[in-house]
Amino acid sequence: MNDPGEFDINQENIDQMFTYECPDSLNIALIGKTGAGKSSFINAFRGLSNSSSDAAEESVGPNAQLVEIKNSKFSHRIHNSEIEIDINFFDSMGFNDQNDTKIDSFLDKIKSEFKISEFDAIVFVTQGRLSKNELEIARMYESKNVMLFFVYNKIDNYLQDQIRKLTGSFKRNLSLDEQYFKNKEKLDELVQSGINTLCKIIDEQNVFESFLNDMKLYDSKLLKNKNYKDKIIKKSIYLITSNSEDFLNPNYSKDGERLKNEIENHLITAKLNNYNINLLDVFSQRVIRYKKKYLFSNLFNGIKLKVFGNTMVNIIPFLDTLIGNIPYINAISEEELVNELKKNFLKQFGIYELQEKLRNEPSSISSNETKIIQLKELMKKIQKDEIINNLELLIQNVNNTRSSNIKAKLKDFITKILPSFGIGLANVGDDLIRFLPSISVKIASGLLAILALLTIPLTAAIYFIFLKISFKKILFRYEEYALVIYELLHEND
User: Fold this and answer.
1) What are the φ and ψ backbone dihedral angles of 98, each rounded to 5 degrees?
2) Are strands 25-31 and 84-91 parallel, antiparallel or unpaired?
């Protein structure tokens, strides 16, 4: 921290809390049963045949499940006028329904070997079914904010089998394309049935549990209905063939181009731009769902504040400046700070840029006047939103926090700020217990009554937990607005 006498707040200081380390690669793990086509997928995505010198080797026979950690990485260089980055695919060991292969342990070893803090995405390569092992891994990584892609692979083989069943044979003198179009209606129906089965498995096994739990808390009816949930799951499924010649064939490898575009362009761009959001981009729906977690993690990124010489408490970077003996208020007013923070949150969720377009060039968003009117009404609603505007209460409370009145400020938090967010002490008991195991539910619910008995370090720790809960509530509301705006913009997609 700068010396108090030299400290000067400016836009750069505010922006620091929204800044991420620029990545030099995208790291994607592949998971799938033996024979699902993980290696051929890696090759097809990179435009290589299975016989190319740089191809991932397809494993067959008794050693099909064996993959050495050091040989699991396959890089794909993206280099153009705007982007230069490696996509690193990590091929995991195969498994079957009978064995008890610990794929999660294998993935941990990959991360350790290649010094990866966490994968950016997991691609599950399947031929229509997902094992219990895969579903558990998917659920675990989704909760850790890792993007999931479910690849329904080898659709060409499936179509050939179905053509044989429908017509009695697959004619070698005719291409798959020709025979597909002769039986297109029935084949599409069968393929859709397979996709529906996969969607049902993902839904029933609560793979997107953390996001679905958030859905229950949204106010918007649009985001709470089953159709919305089904659409989220369906968009995570990609129908492809890992035959390199047909990987981008739109006739039956229907999602090959979408998958390649989402990873090579959208996912890379999102990561390089701090997962900032362009709501006009169809892919932004997937990014919105991860933005809140990334932003919340970055806000509470482990910067330490010494509390009265007795303990160390994590604190938000800008709160570090507010709580210290820095004449912060002389450099920028609370109102200006609140406005800057609101503006930055709007930018992070792609709403600010849309506001500017609505104000200056609405036709660039849509030619539908009704839609433009609805979007403008939503923007007004955001501006008046009580939860978002409670940011001012938070800043006022934090700015006045000093060692001499930390308990008074915690009392103010309990009696005024938490209720303004619709949060009661009964709702934060679990959070307190998780971070402070010595706190019981009974103590949590009666915290106000025993406030005078708390030590200063414990008071500060509880105060910090309440700050996290309150900021999460604000970010949650921005996320909900971004998702509603996205649905309005892309309702016919």
Assistant:
1) -90, -30
2) parallel
Compute the distance between CA of residue 203 and CA of residue 181 in angstroms, rounded to an integer: 32
* CA torsion through residues 283, 266, 361, 336, sign: positive
C-alpha 443/C-alpha 167 separation (Å) is 72
d(CA 56, CA 32): 15
- One-letter amino acid at 396 equals Q
Residue from 123, 154, 283, 138 nearest 201 by CA: 138
pLDDT greater than 60 at residue 217: yes
Closest CA to 398 of 451, 471, 456: 471
Three-class SS state of 124: strand
The answer to whether 403 and 409 have CB atoms below 8 angstroms apart is no
5-63 pLDDT, tens digit each: 232 334 444 455 455 555 678 999 999 888 889 999 999 999 988 888 888 876 654 44
Find tokens 């008995």 and name the residue. Answer: 453
Looking at this protein, which amino acid is placed at residue 456? I
Token pair 């089904």 is found at 230
Location of structure tokens 């529906």:
196
* Residue 84 bridge partners (DSSP): 79
The Cα–Cα gap between 151 and 239 comes to 6
Q: What is the pTM of this model?
A: 0.81
> 289 and 275 in contact (C-beta within 8 Å)?
no
Q: Is 473 within 8 Å of 423 (Cβ atoms)?
A: yes
DSSP line for 245-256: TTTT-TTTSTTH
What is the number of alpha carbons within 13 Å of residue 198 lying toward its C-beta?
A: 27
| Strands (E) located in 1-146 | 25-31, 73-79, 84-91, 121-126
Strand pairing of 237-239 and 304-307?
Answer: unpaired
Side-chain-facing half-sphere of 461: CA atoms under 13 Å? 17
Pick from 251, 250, 277: nearest CA to 261: 250
What tens digit of pLDDT does each residue of 368-412 get? 999 999 999 999 999 999 999 998 888 777 766 444 477 787 788
320 within 8 A of 13, measured Cβ to Cβ: no
Encoded tokens for 436: 């402070």
E-assigned strand segments in 177-281: 237-239
